[in-house]
């Protein structure tokens, strides 16, 4: 009976948190994106694109980004070559929402949950910024592998980082961690 209560509590926390965060994010997107005569993607998507640009500039690459004139995306350039689009899905917010939902559903102490949520979100953001830049550079150098890079390798990086954070959370901080004497 106790296992059922634990599972039910997990499922309730998971779905309530997930739908709440997705709802907030959807409202944010509706209020910040603009389509029509002028296109403007959400500030977080612009920020991820600009941070990816700054990441590349830090390493001496001639990169820049600009708002796409006819869609909700940021154009990523290497030199004068338009290489990639940074769209809403590239900002990793949906992945961060999934990460936060999981650690809240498998909660630990309030302090540990809050600190881990902040540190984990920051870590995922940095991994994602690097991922966007590296993907763009690899697509510039190896355009024939664009599908493999975009659809397989680079989702594996961000989801692998989330999975690693989840494992650490459950093993070290969650109330569901195994007692040390087992």
Beta strands, count: 3
Major sheet: order of its strands? 1-2-3
Distance between the termini: 22 Å
Look at the helices and sheets and give the structural class.
Answer: mainly alpha
Contiguous low-pLDDT stretches (5 residues minimum) are none
If you compute it from the alpha carbons, what radius of gyration comes out, rounded to the nearest whole angstrom?
A: 19 Å
Protein name: Exosortase family protein XrtF
Organism: Aureibaculum flavum
InterPro entries: Exo/Archaeosortase_dom (IPR026392), Exosortase (IPR019127), Exosortase-related_prot_XrtF (IPR026323)
Transmembrane segments: 7-28, 82-106, 113-140, 152-170
Kindly summarize this structure in a few lines:
By secondary structure, the protein is mainly alpha-helical. The protein has helices spanning 2-32, 43-58, 93-105, 110-141, 146-172; strands at residues 63-67, 73-78, 81-87.
Description:
- The two termini are 22 Å apart.
- Strand 2 (73-78) and strand 3 form a beta hairpin.
- A three-stranded antiparallel sheet has the order 1-2-3, with helices on one face.
- It is 65% helix and 10% strand.
- The protein is built from five helices and three strands.
List the defining traits of the structure above.
single chain; 182 residues; mainly alpha; 5 helices; globular
Could you outline the blueprint of secondary structure elements for this entry?
Elements: H1 2-32, H2 43-58, E1 63-67, E2 73-78, E3 81-87, H3 93-105, H4 110-141, H5 146-172
Antiparallel strand pairs: 1-2, 2-3
Helix pairs in contact: 1-3, 2-4, 3-4, 3-5, 4-5
């Amino acid at each position: 009976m106790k296992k059922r209560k634990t599972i039910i509590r997990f499922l309730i926390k998971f779905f309530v948190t997930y739908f709440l965060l997705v709802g907030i994010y959807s409202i944010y997107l509706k209020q910040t994106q603009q389509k029509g005569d002028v296109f403007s993607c959400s500030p977080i998507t612009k920020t991820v694109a600009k941070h990816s640009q700054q990441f590349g500039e830090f390493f001496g690459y001639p990169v820049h980004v600009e708002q796409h004139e006819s869609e909700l995306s940021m154009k990523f350039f290497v030199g004068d070559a338009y290489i990639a689009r940074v769209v809403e899905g590239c900002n990793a917010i949906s992945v961060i929402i999934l990460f936060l939902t999981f650690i809240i559903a498998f909660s630990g102490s309030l302090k540990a949950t809050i600190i881990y949520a902040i540190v984990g979100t920051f870590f995922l953001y940095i991994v994602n910024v690097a991922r966007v830049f590296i993907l763009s550079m690899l697509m510039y150098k190896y355009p024939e592998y664009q599908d493999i890079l975009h659809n397989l390798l680079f989702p594996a990086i961000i989801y692998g980082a989330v999975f690693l954070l989840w494992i650490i959370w459950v093993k070290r901080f969650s109330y569901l961690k195994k007692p040390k004497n087992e």
